[in-house]
Amino acid sequence: xxxxxxxxxxxxxxxxxxxxxxxxxxxxxxxxxxxxxxxxxxxxxxxxxxxxxxxxxxxxxxxxxxxxxxxxxxxxxxxxxxxxxxxxxxxxxxxxxxxxxxxxxxxxxxxxxxxxxxxxxxxxxxxxxxxxxxxxxxxxxxxxxxxxxxxxxxxxxxxxxxxxxxxxxxxxxxxxxxxxxxxxxxxxxxxxxxx
Length: 195
Fold this sequence. Notes:
single chain, 11% strand, 46% helix, two-stranded parallel sheet, mainly alpha
């Protein structure tokens, strides 16, 4: 796949369709400035700061923008909070509306017809496919993203994280947990810092 991408890039540059500097800037933007690490910081702040959490749930667009994460595909955001009684999951049944400023590029499965249809028809089955099994008494809510409204799921904060900094908490937040198709990592499963 890597060779095919490089060959295509070379051909597009050679024909003058793509400026290599513009392509490098685009790649750098999505690797460092846009991506699920932005959403992880939003969630971690909501976990650590009760006032921010309330603001996020009341006006997600403004709360997220206050951290510098706004732009196309994130103009109107709504935050959905998972609790021990309610689990939220996001889908876009018509296309692939996705909050790029906080989650980065959408995963391939998010845009697939099977996910888009099954998420509505059989949401518990979809969650099971992702390895998430909810107790029967947990209400499952499926939210349909549109061109006007994008959603960010705020997963439940994992236990044994009292006293953790926002930076440490952010390491537990996964892209899938912010879509609702996954859970955050536990402290035992979080990635170790590289030295």
